[in-house]
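Q: Convert this sequence to structure tokens.
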Amino acid sequence: MKHAPRILIADDEPLLCAELQAELSALWPEACVAVAGDGIEALRMARELDPDIAFLDIRMPGLSGLEVARTFGSRTHVVFVTAYQEHALAAFDEGAIDYLLKPLDTARLARTVERLRARLGTPPPDLARLVQQLAPKKPPAWLQASVGSTIHFIDLNEVVYFGSELKYTRVVTDQMEAHIRTPLKDLAEQLEEAGFWQIHRGYVVAVKRIAAVNRDADGALWLTLRGHTDKLPVSQRFQHRFKGM
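A:
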């Protein structure tokens, strides 16, 4: 490659973008690194820059990283950035050059840069099959949840949070607590499309119901909810969501 490698970062979390840009600049000083704050901006910048490499958040407003990757064909090496382990494994298996899990791990990024350096002289893989495989399903508008022997139809907009309980998922609204049989891990990705965030292996919360984020004496983060007395823990894996708060 005769020109300095052109790298595009696309993620809607400004702090993560800044961290990734700084790390890449340190690990690969000769690279030209540009940043887009969402999928639509990423698509526009990709047309202007024709990047050799793109670090794409799988979930972004406007256009997802998957939709942006689809436009690259086999012109750009793609590294997917995701909070979901299953996305990461699928990306690796299907030929994406690598993946990064949130929060960022510097050692992992360094290994990714080494692989990128080695592969820049080869054509990038076509990610069409991966994009189709990872495309998120639309969340349900209604949930059929049980309370004892009664089945309730719950509007998704009324749910405050979901909690994992053994073989079931607890559905908490302002009026009731009910259970569904679908495991929380199978719901989490779909629910992001409807304004929910996974904050812990065992909890997914409606973003509009988050009132505050508090740190206790041990350094752990807890969410206080609007109109609800329950407090929910935030695991280390998902604390990057609240770095700007």
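Residues 142-242 form a domain with the OB fold (Dihydrolipoamide Acetyltransferase, E2P) fold (CATH 2.40.50.1020).
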